[in-house]
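Entry 14. Structure prediction run on the chain below.
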Amino acid sequence: MVYNHTAEEITPGPTFCFRGLANEAYYILDKERGRYANYTGTGNTLNANHSVVRRMIMDSLALLGEEMHVDGFRFDLASILARDEKGQPVENPPILWDIESDPVLATAKLIAEAWDAAGLYQVGTFVGDSWMEWNGRFRDDVRGFVRA
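Output returned:
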């Protein structure tokens, strides 16, 4: 699941996604520089702990779980889900606890890519009890060993 960024551009340009609905709700903004904060490496970062964005994420996961019978989710750059509206890591991020405690998702497998492109690395310390973690450094080491 990619709940960390959308197709909106760094600079003003066409509106593809949430910018036209509620830019300041959906995105983490770098107010000093007047543009999107970029913790994803793609030019913008969703404000996952804002109530509107949390509801969108939970509704989409519920649809996938209930209607489409998806029994597991891997979250791309999941550490972004642990950032607040200023981009700072939060000790108990609401969206991560919403996902973990949701009755529809109670039996779903939850896998976090527990880092982001801005250097927040939470492998081994990711919030919650039900989350499994994707270990990119281990994967890269194994890949390097096999290729050698």
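The longest helix spans residues 51-67.
Filed with the rest of this week's runs.
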